[in-house]
Write a structure and sequence with these properties.
0% strand, single chain, elongated, mainly alpha, 3 helices
Length: 121
């Protein structure tokens, strides 16, 4: 059974909004969830997003950075320190931004589909 969401999954993840009420209370820090929603009381700690997003982000960000670095090297051939100044911050920013979005999407989908770890009653 599917639950209704307060807003579309991607919009809610981008803005860090609670999937139940839409309040901007999902994240405590850059990519860590609060214990619960301050507005409606949804318990975020009951969801298990885990590290599912990390392997996909490693490949995505890695591909962007490697292709960009190769292109820059072949087009301009800058000194090595230019690569360090460009690609290290870009890697960090892309990883943190996309990790937050991916974790938000996974939590919203887990809420929508009422998915939980296996449990016996």
């Amino acid at each position: 059974m599917s639950r209704p969401l307060a807003q579309p999954v991607l919009i809610g993840a981008l803005l860090g909004r609670c999937p139940r009420c839409g309040a901007p209370t999902m994240f405590h820090r850059v990519a860590s969830f609060r214990d619960r929603c301050d507005a409606c009381g949804l318990d975020y700690s009951s969801f298990d997003v885990g590290d599912a997003a990390a392997p996909f982000l490693i490949f995505l960000v890695g591909a962007v950075v490697v292709v960009g670095a190769i292109w820059l090297e072949l087009a301009v051939s800058p000194p090595w320190w230019v690569h360090v100044l460009v690609w290290l911050p870009l890697t960090l920013v892309l990883t943190l931004a996309l990790l937050r979005i991916a974790k938000g999407v996974l939590l919203a989908l887990e809420y929508k589909n009422d998915a939980r770890l296996g449990r016996r009653e």
